Request: fold
Amino acid sequence: MNRILPILVVLAAILALWYAAVVPMNAGWTIAQAQRAGHELTFLDVVADTMSQDRPRLPAPHQVAAELKKTVLDTKVTSKRSLVFHGWITLQSTLWGFALGTTVGIGMAVSIVYSKTANMSLMPWAIISQTIPIVAIAPMIIVVLATLGVEGRTVPKAIISAYLCFFPVLVSMVKGLRSPGAMQIDLMKTYSANAGQTFWKLRLPASVPYLFTSLKVGIAAALVGTIVGELPTGAIQGLGARILIGDQFGNPLMIWSALIAAACLAGALVSIVAVLQSLALQRMGYAR
Amino acid sequence: MTLVLAALVLWMAAWLLNTRIAGSSLASSYIGRVAVPVVFGLSVLAIWELVVRGLNVPQVILPAPTIIAETFAAETGTLWIDFRQTALKGAISGYVIGCLAAFVVALAIDRSTFLRRGLLPIGNFVAALPIVGTAPILVNWFGFDWQSKAAVVVVMVFFPILVNTVQGLADTAAMQRDLMRTYSASYWQTLLKLRLPAAMPFVFNGLKIATTLALIGAIVAEYFGSPTRGMGFRISTSVGTLELAMVWSEIAVAALAGTLFYGAVTLVERWVTFWHPSQR
Amino acid sequence: MSQAAAIEAKNLDLTFETGDGAIQALRDVTLEMRKGEFVSFIGPSGCGKTTFLRVVAGLETPTGGEVRVNGMSPDEARRDRAYGYVFQEAGLYPWRTIAGNVRLPLEIMGYSRSEMADRVNRVLELVELSGFENKHPWQLSGGMQQRASIARALAFDADILLMDEPFGALDEIVRDHLNEQLLGLWEHTGKTIGFVTHSIPEAVYLSTRIVVMSPRPGRIADVIDNPLPRTRPLDIRDTPEFLEVAQRIRKGLRAGHSYGD
Reply:
């Protein structure tokens, strides 16, 4: 209770601020409309109208909630108007990108830990790769893959999301694989353990806590990557595409509901990884 | 085909050279640490060139580095205009405003345990969200010019900085806080002399994450409307007309800007947190 | 109560509320430390010796009884700059130089610039760290760091020095050296010192009085007056008198222990 109460209070405050902001953000349009029609409006009329416009600059929370209910609960999952459908499209690319990104990240980490050449050649470029704004590359990846004959958008989106996802995994895994101390490595040496045995019996188990911490960051990054991949590229399916289409058709409710849906998806994905983390660490005896 | 074979041979030669450097006494010197990644980067460029020429890859798929370099040299004027619009006006101004705002809010939150408990989990959650998605909304609110780009950047960098600063301010040993209490130090004295310096490694962690986010935000926002200049604008129009060499030139500018920006923040970090174990 | 008392504790009680129920850290602790005394507190972990020191420093508030420092409450005494506190770890700020660390309390207490420079020089000389002013803590050995933290506690002329296992993390050779130095410093400055330790020889070697404490609940088991002369070379530790005091402490510790279990 001590932990949840402050969070609830802050959430309530955010909601209140949101409502308070709705009035000044949308009042301009309301007043302009009334002037054109020659109506006199009381303050309460203005407030009531700002909360229920069809195309508000800032929709009120209950409008977003209604839109979410309409597109999530009241629409068939297979329909192109359903947010569940679009969320599924986004989720697929995210998971593919996540799988690709973690594989590349772990693979690079192993080679960096075992090869000094790889460490010195790759590590600086891995860092530089993250300072390059991926969005600059995103539209091109899609066009190039299309010219190469790759159908659909799942693959290019997955590549972009893997690009954002591999780095945190790489950094944590390098740290984790190097985490056994000199004493533990020496112990393996006294057993005449070969490199493979040291890896499987010492380095890999020691790196698991690091891995899971980075997986939580990685899956969130993968989702960001997928949405970035959907935004600037004229996609028509996926949560990013909903944001794009909402913008093109001047439908703010569509943008806001897609944003909230993306937030929920992110929360769900991170929680799932967190649950897997606590299960795995418990089984391995890290947690008590 | 010979060019492709040459690429393979070159690749192995470069890797061998790097292995030699890594195994020699140069490995721990400054020269060695710079030379190895440079050799690696150059070999990748050379292989790219050889493979593209050897396999006759069409320009609309992947232009060769030399072609990109030519375009870059020919278009420096345009590239500079785009860089100024996106990086200097949009990204940097948004970065500065966002970081300052987050820092001030973090200091305010930090005075109340209740607010910290409430905002930290939410901030952590929001920092993991795809905030880039708010770009169309903010472009709608602030117009097409750089102001809306800066607004997107502000929203994107705000939470990582906030979360890191609040965590950093909380990261002092109980013993060090007790020490300040034995001096009867006031809140501000403790803040200035103990907690702010101790928080700096965390703050810089946030500042570094934010550099990349700033450029991403500024570029994405341009896809939703911009004047006829800017890196994002140029990339989307050039992709549309299949001028991929121009796209790659803009990517090179973005990579350069991102790396320099990150490098600059890292330098300041080294100067401010010289005492931290990771910097010694 | 006599005028010369630096620290007086009367029937001190302190109970911590924890998740597993209440823990009585101090029960009915009554003790008087006269000015210029060197009092050691010894006992197994959980006996309340550190807690007692923290209560005196006003870092913990007792749930019962009373404590006076120079005739004032601990909070007043702290504002009066009555004591310097040395923790188990040196706890120097890594971003400040050695001189900067010693200057820290002086800055907070608002000394003038020239006064600060004077004092920093003087106390660094006292702990034999002259010449290391501009080094950073991580460039010094553990023993030197701890000496710097003692200099920091001495910088503002508090007449009471509270030391919580200051040499606990150091190796024995360094520890011997610092013990000798501390004894010289005490003789030289005439400060009142409260010193928490785990080590019987350290307690006997340093103090004029030794307070033996026992755990669950934390309380005083024995108070031993040290008959050794004030001037003590290191090899005094091999004399029969020394060993006798040590024996008595050991007995007190053992008695306290069996009581608890």
Notes: Chains C and A do not touch (no CB pair under 8 Å). Residues 240-260 of chain C form the longest helix (21 residues). The mean pLDDT of chain C is 87.
